[in-house]
Specification:
By secondary structure, the protein is an all-alpha fold. It has 16 helices and no strands. Helix 10 packs parallel to helix 14.
Length: 380
């Protein structure tokens, strides 16, 4: 077998994102299905308005959070499959040289779907563990009749079984596509040089470190996306959780905050560690030519600082637009819903916390650069 379970175990990010997505969607979808069962018993006027608000909230949260996290999981899965193939090109090239077809090799990539199954199963179980408290808070005023927690098998099918199977199939298909390369190209173990194309874009003149910083950002687009997504999650979720004190329950606010911190921390950690592993040879050569640890860190890690700032700005706008749309469109017919306005103090606190966390992570991994052995890298 080409892929081992321990290789798939490295897909922690996908498991965490899948867990968060299924946790949120299961709680709100289960609540939506259970609350629909008491529709006939809901009295008119205030109870009816509150009932419609709860149904609308469940729909919006499931669509927005589930859709966003689903797209992120797909991007992360494709990134890790490509990264695995790039790292193991020689081994895969040998298998192709021995007569194995792309599909025969790619079928072993199904284990990458195990990370999705682990995350979705944990999220599904976690949702039922939190449901008693969640149902209590959703109806803490006692406006609606008591809502019993029911088990709906279709949610297990839609949120655990089908996503796991779909991601396993996607992994196999994408791996087969990535393996459609000449055997010699795989055996070389390195990507083709970038300068083979006629009329290719030339590097702008400038100091070496500036050119390296631009090249690092341009050639690692997926990693740049992860840095962007990490800051986006931190910005949007921390600020959105503060706004939930008026638009939802305190539990929802804490849940959104925790999910945002977990997603931001996981994606930032995975992105930075992959950046280090993917640039070890470059770092080694820079040290051979006398560049300091600080200069190596600034050229390799500092290139992503602009993406972090952009992600924070987009996350701030995203949470404001989303909550404003919920208030102005979803709850436009409900009285007593406050107008959502930007909370500048919360935004500044979130920015300060993220800047401190980001710079701390960068400092820690700059120290890791210093510990990289030049001899060990060059002999690998």
């Amino acid at each position: 077998m080409v892929i081992r379970i321990r290789d798939a175990a490295k897909l922690l990010g996908i498991s965490v994102i899948a867990c968060c997505a299924v946790l949120v969607c299961t709680m709100f979808c289960n609540f939506y299905l259970d609350i629909r069962q008491i529709e006939a018993t809901v009295l008119p006027a205030q109870a009816r308005i509150f009932y419609e608000a709860q149904v609308a909230t469940a729909r919006v949260v499931c669509l927005v959070s589930g859709g966003c996290l689903l797209m992120t999981s797909v991007v992360m899965l494709l990134f890790y499959i490509k990264h695995y193939i790039d790292v193991h090109k020689k081994e895969l090239g040998i298998l192709k040289a021995l007569g194995y077809s792309e599909w025969r090799i790619a079928v072993h990539f199904w284990v990458f779907g195990s990370g999705v199954f682990t995350g979705t199963a944990a999220g599904f179980a976690g949702a039922f563990a939190l449901m008693p408290k969640f149902y209590e808070l959703q109806n803490k005023e006692g406006i609606l009749p008591e809502i019993a927690i029911g088990f709906h098998p279709e949610l297990l099918l839609y949120f655990v079984i089908l996503p796991s199977a779909a991601f396993a199939l996607l992994a196999v298909v994408y791996a087969a596509f990535q393996l459609k390369k000449p055997v010699l190209s795989l055996l070389r173990g390195q990507a083709q040089a970038l300068s083979n194309k006629k009329g290719g874009r030339r590097e702008a003149a400038g100091p070496f470190l500036d050119g390296l910083r631009r090249s690092t950002l341009r050639t690692k687009k997926t990693l740049a996306f992860f840095i962007f997504f990490a800051s986006f999650c931190f910005s949007s979720m921390t600020q959105m959780s503060a706004g939930m004190k008026d638009l939802g329950s305190e539990m929802m606010g804490w849940m959104i905050l925790l999910i945002g911190l977990v997603l931001a921390g996981t994606t930032l950690f995975l992105a930075i560690t992959t950046v280090i592993r993917g640039n070890t040879r470059t770092i080694a050569m820079m040290r051979v030519f006398g560049y300091s640890q600080k200069e190596c860190g600034r050229a390799i890690l500092g290139a992503y600082r602009s993406m972090a700032c952009l992600g924070f700005a987009v996350g701030t706008m995203y949470q404001y637009v989303l909550l404003r749309l919920m208030v102005d469109l979803v709850f436009k017919d409900f009285a007593g819903v406050p107008v959502y306005e930007p909370d500048v103090p919360v935004m500044l606190v979130s920015l300060a916390c993220f800047a401190g966390l980001y710079e701390l992570v960068m400092h820690v991994y700059s120290e890791k650069i210093r510990k990289i052995s030049v001899k060990e890298i060059m002999l690998a």
